[in-house]
Specification:
Blueprint lengths: L6 H5 L5 H13 L11 E9 L5 E8 L13 E5 H7 L7 H10 L13 H6 L4 E5 L2 H7 L4 H9 L3 E4 L6 H10 L10 E4 L3 E6 L2 H21 L14 H15 L4 E5 L2 H7 L4 H4 L9 H5 L4 E2 L4 H19 L13 E4 L3 E6 L2 H24 L7 H8 L2 H7 L12 E4 L5 H12 L3 E6 L4 H4 L5 E5 L5 H15 L4 E5 L4 H15 L6 E5 L3 H17 L3 E5 L7 E2 L13 H13 L4
Parallel strand pairs: 5-6, 9-10, 12-13, 12-15, 13-14, 15-16, 16-17
Antiparallel strand pairs: 1-2, 1-4, 2-3, 4-7, 6-7, 8-11, 10-11, 17-18
Helix pairs in contact: 6-9, 6-15, 10-14, 18-23, 20-21, 21-22
The structure holds zinc ion.
Zinc ion binds next to loops.
Length: about 575
Amino acid sequence: MKNRWNENDAAQFANDPKGMRVYTSRLLGQEPELVLHGGGNTSVKMTTTDFFGDTVETLFVKGSGWDLGTIEEAGFAPERLDVLNRLAEFDSLSDSDMVEQQRIALLDSKAPNASVEAILHALIPFRYVDHTHANAAIAVCNTEDGEQRIRDLYGDRVIVIPYVMPGFALAKLVYQLTKDVDWNAYKGMILMNHGVFTFSDDARESYERMINLVGEAETYLEKRNATKTANAEGKSNNLELAAIRRRVSDIRGLPVVAKFDRSSKAAGYSNLPDLETFATQGPLTPDHSIFAKRIPAILSGTPTTALKSYANDYLAYFERNASEDLTCLDQAPRWAIWPGHGILSFGLNAKNASVISDIANHTSQVVQMAQALGGWKPLDESDVFEVEYWELEQAKLKSNKASPPLQGKIALITDATNEIGSNCVQSLLAQGAAVIALSSDSKIASIINLPACLHLECEIGDAESLDQAMAKAIEAFGGLDILIINDASQAEEVSLLLQAALPFLELGIDPSISILGTNATNAVQSIRLAIGEQSSESIRISAIDPHSQTAYASYRSAKSTEAPLSNETVTRLVTSSASESHS
Ligand SMILES: [Zn+2]
C-alpha cells in the first residue's frame, strides 16, 4: 500500500486541522483498494465557537453523499461531541432515531447528515480517526478462520471487534468492549468482515497507521501466494447482451443500463471452474448489498433461465430472512458473471452501473485472494439481509422521489456535433438517458465531453465504421432504445444505420426512432418498409422537419407552424417523443 503523504503538500495545513483532515481524507480516497464510492469515513475533533460565542467540543465527521477522494471542508458535518457521547449510553436506539438526533446535534443547519458511524468516531479518544474498508484486510477476515488469522497477523497491536451491523449497534458494541481499554496501547481497530480504524492526535500518524496496517495484510497475502488472480480473453456477443439487459429490465420493472466489463480480469473470473460454489456466497462487506445485492447472477446455460432462477432464489432469500413488515425489493440482479465473457453490471443510469461495476470488480479479486488463502467465507446471509433491508434503506423506498423521464433508457444520435444534435444530446442527458453521440467530425471528443455520454467518431455511410461504433455503444450501455437520425437527407445512410441499429432496437425498451431533416417524411415511409409490418407496431417512428412549415409528420400531436422550428423546439419534440409512454 503506497504511502501518499507529501511533506510539501501537507505543510500548508500545519495550523489548520480541518484543512489537514481534508488532505489526508483525500489521500485515503485516492486508493480504490482502501475505499470505494462513498465507503469509509474520517473525522477530526476540534473546539469551535457557536452562535452565542460559547466554546463547543465538536466532531467534524464525513457527511453522507461525499466521497473521501473528492471531499471538501463542506463535506464534514460538525456535530456536538457531548451529544454523540450521550447517545452511546443508550441501551438501544433505532438507527432512524440516531440519524434524527445527529441531525439535531449539528452546529450548521446546512451541513450534510453525519455518517452513521459518527458515534463510533466520537468514542475514539483521539483527534484524528480514519476508517476504510480495505480489500486486503477484508480478504483475510472473510476466510474460514478469519479472526484467528487477524490475531496472528496483528498480535495485540489492534483491538478486534466481532462483526455487528454498522450504525448504533456497532457504536454500542465498541463502547461496551472498550470501556476499560487503554487506547494508547493500540495502533488500530479491526472490525471483522467490515474494515479498519486507525487514530492519533496527529493526522499523519493516523493516516500512516492505516497504510501500514493494510500494507501488512497485503504482505500476509503475498507470502501465502494469495494475490494472483485469473486472466483470460473475454468473448463478446452483443445481441445476447442486449437480450440480457432487456430481461433484467423486465424483472426489475424499469429500464436499466448494463455495463459490460470484458477486461482480462473480469473474463478470467468468469472462466473459473466451480463459480457457483464460491461466487454466490456473499459480498465483501454487507454495505455493498445496498448497491449490488448480496450475490450476483451466474449466467451459465441460457441467460433467460438463469435470470429467472436468480429471481426465484431472491424471493426465497427474502422469505427466509424477512421478519416484521418489510417491503421486498425487486428480484433483478445488480451484477452478473457471464461465463467466458466477463462481468455485467446493471444500474439505473450509467453512473450507477459504473459504481456497481467497481464493486463487482473488487469483489471478484478479493474472493480469489480469500479462496487462495484457505477458502472464501463471507458473513451469513442473515447479516447481509439485515443491512440490505436496513430501516434507513426501507425508508428511502417510501420517499417516492420521481426519477427523470428517460432514466435507464439508451439513446443514439447521429450528427451529434451540429447545433440541433448537441442540443438533443444535452436534453437527453438532462432527462436521465445514457447517450451515444456519433459524428464524422474527428473533434467530437472535444466538442462533446460529458461523463454520461459516449462520444464516437463514425462515418454513417461506411458500414464497417458504423458496426464498430454500434459494438462499442452496446458494450458501454447494454442496448438501444432511442435512435435519433439527425439529418435524413441521405437515403443510403439511413438504410445502413437501420441495418446496424434495428436488431438492437427490437430488443429495446419501448423503442423509438426520430428522424430529423427535410426528407424526414420520405424517410419515415422507407423506414416503415424496412422494419416491415410486424415490428413497426412496437417501434414508434416520428419525423420532424425543422425547415418546413408543416413541421413534422407522423408525430401524434402534430400541428403546423408558421415559421421554421427553433432548435429548442426540435430538441423538445425529439426527446418528448422518446419519453412518451406507450399507449
Ligand atoms: Zn465502515
